[in-house]
Design goal:
mainly beta, Methylamine Dehydrogenase, Chain H
Length: about 350
């Protein structure tokens, strides 16, 4: 995702935000998992459906948590510049993008030991397992390309130039991959059969696409831009609808059991959008979180949401003049959606 300075920057922006026009649900649905340690940045987090544990990027390591209690069960060190974590089915391997090492580290989920390292492009960011091709897709932020990894032999088998900074990507599971291009304000479409770019879709003048989610049943893409959720038809690229969301968003998930889109907004809330059908979407009440909580993971089995953040000192500034992260306050917010 966006560089780790985004966390502090989002908080700085929040200080000058006006009150949201949408009503906000009180934060009594949230449990805070206190992790502590050096709060020097974070990005993605994800639930491994195989062992039901929560993996959280955190500076130079990945914290492994009990997703129910928040108990810290271990960590994977040496992942400098960590961004994303992904898993492959029927395997004990996990994969971590290390942005400052320009590599993906492979680890054994049983031992938490790193077993291999795969060189990719510069500043690898988002990563996910693409079910149609059975490959791992890695977004390389500084080389404007996608690395395609075969998890069977831990090797890059293709590199795709996407013409801009790839922020994150999703798949329809039927042969198409969609990539948010942050600096071009568009979505690039990739053919998962031969890994070639087939389309560049405009986001209707909205800027800074970051989070991306998909409903494969209705063929709808959900791209989070600056204070706006852009919904596109994933078959044609046609604009379906635009819905205002909170500021500082860097993540989105779609719960396909409840047909609900959630966007994590760094200003301190989650925007909630209900999909009634392929063309009807309703913005529900926001869920209050905390400033800086701008990435998100969904546990599809429980409908719970997880967001990382920390506490900030609004009176003390860092070297860039932004509110300073309080040491030892790194945490994950576990949100019960009531679904």
């Amino acid at each position: 995702m966006k560089t780790k300075s985004f966390i502090i920057a989002s908080v700085f922006l929040c200080l000058s935000l006006n009150v949201s026009a949408q009503k906000t649900v009180a934060a009594n649905t949230i449990t805070t998992f206190k992790i502590g340690g050096n709060s020097d940045g974070w990005d993605y987090l994800t639930v491994n459906p195989t062992n039901n544990l929560l993996y959280v990027s955190h500076g130079t390591k990945v914290n492994i948590l009990n997703k129910t209690t928040g108990e810290n069960l271990g960590e994977i060190a040496g992942t400098t510049g960590v961004h994303g974590i992904s898993f492959t089915p029927n395997s004990t391997n996990g994969f971590i993008t290390c942005g400052k090492l320009n590599s993906v580290k492979v680890f054994d989920v049983k031992t938490n030991q790193v077993t291999a390292e795969i060189p990719v492009g510069q500043n690898p960011d988002a990563i996910f397992y693409e079910t149609f091709s059975e490959k791992l897709i890695v977004c390389n932020g500084k080389t404007n390309n996608i690395s395609v990894i075969d998890p069977k032999n831990n090797a890059v088998v293709n590199t795709i130039d996407v013409g801009g900074k790839p922020e994150t990507a999703v798949s329809n599971g039927k042969g198409k991959i969609f990539v948010n291009i942050e600096d071009k304000n568009e979505i690039v479409v990739i053919d998962a059969k031969n890994f070639t770019v087939t389309n560049h879709w405009s986001l209707n003048k909205e800027e800074g696409p970051s989070g991306l989610a998909i409903d494969t049943k209705t063929n709808r893409l959900f791209s989070t831009c600056d204070k706006m959720l852009v919904i596109l038809d994933s078959e044609t690229g046609k604009l379906v609808k635009k819905i205002p969301i909170g500021d500082g968003c860097d993540g989105a998930v779609f719960d396909d059991k409840t047909n609900t889109v959630y966007t994590s907004n760094g200003e301190g809330n989650i925007s909630v959008i209900q999909e009634k059908n392929a063309n009807q979407f309703i913005a529900l009440k926001n869920i209050s979180t905390k400033k800086g909580a701008r990435t998100i993971a969904l546990d599809s089995s429980t409908h719970d949401l997880y967001l990382p953040t920390a506490d900030f000192d609004d009176k003390e500034k860092d070297s860039r003049g932004r509110p300073k992260i309080k040491e030892g306050t790194f945490q994950v917010l576990a949100v019960k959606t009531g679904k």
